[in-house]
């Protein structure tokens, strides 16, 4: 599997960098964004390094899509948001900031204008607790 040593998402996929993991299979990994736009903001990545959709394998992205449905059900159980934004950016001009394919799932709430990236890191204890709750919700 193609992975890069200097890519933070490859390091997380290899278990060489910490993450608040929620779900994992042979093709994908799901974990919390450590700069959450809102509680429950999570990322689904391919384990293989694809810079963006332009070089991604369709089978890996199909798994990202099916796991997004799985995670939507977990978010509904744990957070019950009013809505859910699903975002996926390719190349810098489209807003991509980490150059390893990933999909954002961001719970949305009525009356709150939520961006994609928070400037503030999430509280580690809250992130750990949220990851545990979501993990439990998909089992
Ligand atoms: Zn990577």
Describe this structure in words.
Strand 1 and strand 2 (28-32) form a beta hairpin. It is built from three helices and five strands; from the N terminus they run αβββαββα. It has a five-stranded antiparallel beta sheet with strand order 1-2-3-5-4. It has one domain (8-137): HIT family, subunit A (2-Layer Sandwich), CATH 3.30.428. Helix content is 29%, strand content 19%. It has helices spanning 8-13, 58-78, 124-137; strands spanning 21-24, 28-32, 42-46, 83-87, 102-108. The model has no long low-confidence stretch (mean pLDDT 94). It has 139 residues and is an alpha+beta fold. Zinc ion (ZN) is lined by residues 4, 7, 9-10, 49, 100.
Give, in spatial order, the strands making up the sheet with the most strands. Answer: 1-2-3-5-4
String of helices and strands: HEEEHEEH
Termini separation comes to 28 Å
Helix content: 25-40%
Say which CATH homologous superfamily is assigned: HIT-like
CATH class bucket: Alpha Beta
Query: Which oligomerization state do the chains in this entry correspond to?
Result: single chain
Shape descriptor reads: globular
Give the low-pLDDT segments: none
By CATH, the topology is: HIT family, subunit A
CATH architecture: 2-Layer Sandwich
Number of DSSP strands?
Answer: 5
Ligands in the structure?
Answer: zinc ion
Number of self-contained structural domains: 1
Brief descriptors of the model:
5-stranded antiparallel beta sheet; binds zinc ion; 139 residues; HIT family, subunit A
């Amino acid at each position: 599997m193609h992975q890069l040593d200097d890519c933070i998402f490859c390091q997380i996929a290899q278990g060489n960098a910490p993450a608040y993991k929620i779900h994992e299979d042979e093709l994908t990994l799901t974990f919390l964004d450590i700069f959450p736009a809102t509680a429950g903001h999570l990322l689904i990545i391919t384990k293989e390094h694809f810079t963006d959709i332009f070089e991604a394998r369709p089978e890996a992205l199909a798994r990202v899509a099916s796991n997004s449905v799985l995670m939507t059900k977990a978010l509904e159980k744990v957070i019950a948001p009013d809505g859910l934004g699903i975002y996926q950016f390719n190349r810098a001009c489209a807003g991509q900031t980490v150059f390893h394919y990933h999909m954002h799932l961001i719970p949305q709430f009525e009356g709150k204008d939520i961006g994609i990236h928070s400037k503030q890191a999430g509280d580690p204890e809250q992130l750990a607790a949220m990851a545990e709750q979501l993990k439990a919700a998909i089992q």
